[in-house]
Each structure stands twice: as C-alpha cells, then as structure tokens.
Design a protein that fits this description.
Layout lengths: L7 H18 L6 H8 L3 H8 L2 H21 L7 H18 L1 H9 L7 H10 L6 H17 L5 H23 L5 H18 L4 H15 L3
C-alpha cells in the first residue's frame, strides 16, 4: 500500500498565507502556530508538509524570487539596451520599496530574532543562486548587462552584472532603512547607474539620455 502524500493544494495554501504574513508583517511574525491557525489546519499539518518554519520561509522566499524574476524578465530586448538595463534597475528598486519585508527575507535570509537552527534551515532550502527562481532572476539581470555592455567574455559579464546588482541592492537597502532621503533617491540612483556605464566606456551624455528614456518608460505620461 502506497504512503499517502501531503495534499498539494494545502501546501500551496500554506505558502500563499505565509507569503502574505511575511509581506505584510515580516518574517519574524511567521510562526507555525499562526500559519496553522490562519489556514484552519493543525500545526502537524504544517510540519508534515514542510518540517520546519525555516522550510516554510524558504518556500516563501522562492515565491518572492519568482515574482521578482517575472518583473526582471518583463524588460524585453529593445534597440535601446542601455535604457533596458536602467529600466530593469528602476524596477528592481520599485520591487524592494513595495515589498520591504519580502525583499529582506529574499536577500538577508532571515530575521535576527530567529535561532541559528532556523537560519540554517532556510539557507539549506533556498540559497538564491541555487534555486530555480533565484537563478531565473539573476539570469535576467545578467542578460540585460551583456547587451548593454557588449564585448566581454562570460567572466567579465558576470563581474559587470555583480557590480550592477551590488550597487542597486545597496541603494535599495539604504532606502528601506531610511538612510537615504526620498528626495535624494532619484539623483543617487541616476548618478550610480550612469557612473557604472561611463566606467564601461559609455559617454556620460549618452548614458544620462538613456537613463531619462528608462525613467520615461517606467512611468509613461
């Protein structure tokens, strides 16, 4: 007699509820007890499907990367590759601003209130570059970089993508921590993106014009 498998629809319901909890209240508010109560199931039902709260958070994190990857991939290839890259960066910052708790879970792994065992469980289940959705998100970013700065080999493109990611992530974290004034956010973002492009051989005026076009595509009037 085969062993019954946990119901897929219950698991998806639990992930959706956990995603909502994290997105609205933060990962430190995600507990098995709360999740079970909101889903109308026993705590054992959660443990049967996930094993731990860290594994639940890992599933939420992967779903977050899926949403993030969809957004990154929404920037298609046009005849304006530098503006495409800038638009992707602006969408990145918009995602972080709209989902600060989820973004923190995705890129900081977990809340400092979590025990070391819970933190290890999350990392074990969802290292971003090793999961399907995380790899998809980073792949989309890498492709935009490769088109904006052609001519480099795979290693150079990887370094350039890392520069763009690290810089954009830094602005996102400063803005979320309210260490970067809202009125300075646009100017700092433009200066950073344009400076990276100039460092890779673009003329400053051309890069600034491309940024203006990207901003126009972000919020068309």
């Amino acid at each position: 007699m085969s062993t019954p498998q946990p119901s897929t629809d219950v698991r998806e319901t639990l992930v959706s509820l956990a995603h909502r909890i994290v997105d609205s209240d933060g990962v430190d508010k995600l507990t098995v007890r709360r999740l079970a109560a909101e889903a109308g199931v026993s705590t054992m039902a959660v443990y049967t499907r996930f094993g731990s709260v860290g594994a639940v958070a890992a599933a939420v994190r992967e779903r977050g990367f899926g949403e993030f990857a969809d957004l990154m991939e929404s920037v298609g290839e046009t005849a304006d590759p530098l503006a495409d890259l800038y638009l992707q960066g602006l969408l990145y910052l918009r995602f972080a601003a709209a989902h600060p708790h989820l973004y923190s879970l995705m890129f900081q792994y977990t809340s400092p209130e979590w025990a070391a065992g819970q933190r290890a469980e999350l990392v074990q289940n969802a290292a971003p570059a090793e999961t399907e959705e995380g790899a998809r998100a980073f792949g989309a970013m890498r492709r935009r970089v490769a088109r904006a700065y052609p001519g480099g080999d795979t290693a150079i493109t990887g370094v350039r993508a890392g520069e763009a990611w690290a810089s954009t992530h830094g602005i996102a974290m400063l803005a979320m921590a309210r260490l970067l004034a809202p009125e300075a956010l646009d100017a700092v973002t433009e200066s950073m993106m344009v400076a990276l492009s100039v460092g890779h051989g673009a003329r400053h005026a051309d890069a600034a014009d491309a940024f203006s076009r990207a901003r126009g595509r972000l919020d068309p009037r």
